[in-house]
């Protein structure tokens, strides 16, 4: 069984979103802090992807071109970035534990 993990951002907690997740019986955490990049390496991957797509925005004219651009840029992401972020997880978790769960204290 899987547990769906997402932040507490309003797009994840809105009434329609909650209705849909309940309707499909999506198992999820009761609470997960929003915007916690210290424990979410994917946020850094999303940022890198966003920067790369942003550099090409002038040549994107419709949703299909945007979709193609996102897929192309995803493939071009440095594999080392993902490895570095994965390798840093233990250190980040230890820092949060040391800060008693408050990611703003370090």
From TrEMBL:
Domain Tc1-like transposase DDE: 9-67
Highest rank taxon of the organism: Eukaryota
GO molecular function, one term: nucleic acid binding
UniProt protein name: Tc1-like transposase DDE domain-containing protein
Source organism of the structure: Phycomyces blakesleeanus (strain ATCC 8743b / DSM 1359 / FGSC 10004 / NBRC 33097 / NRRL 1555)
């Amino acid at each position: 069984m899987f547990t769906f993990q997402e932040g507490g951002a309003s797009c994840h907690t809105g009434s329609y979103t909650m209705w849909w997740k309940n309707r499909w019986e999506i198992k999820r955490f009761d609470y997960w802090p929003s915007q916690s990049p210290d424990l979410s390496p994917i946020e850094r991957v999303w940022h890198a992807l966003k920067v790369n797509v942003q550099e090409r925005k002038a040549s994107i004219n419709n949703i299909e071109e945007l979709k193609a651009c996102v897929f192309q840029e995803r493939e071009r992401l440095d594999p080392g970035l993902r490895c570095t972020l994965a390798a840093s997880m233990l250190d980040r978790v230890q820092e949060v534990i040391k800060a008693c769960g408050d990611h703003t204290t370090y």
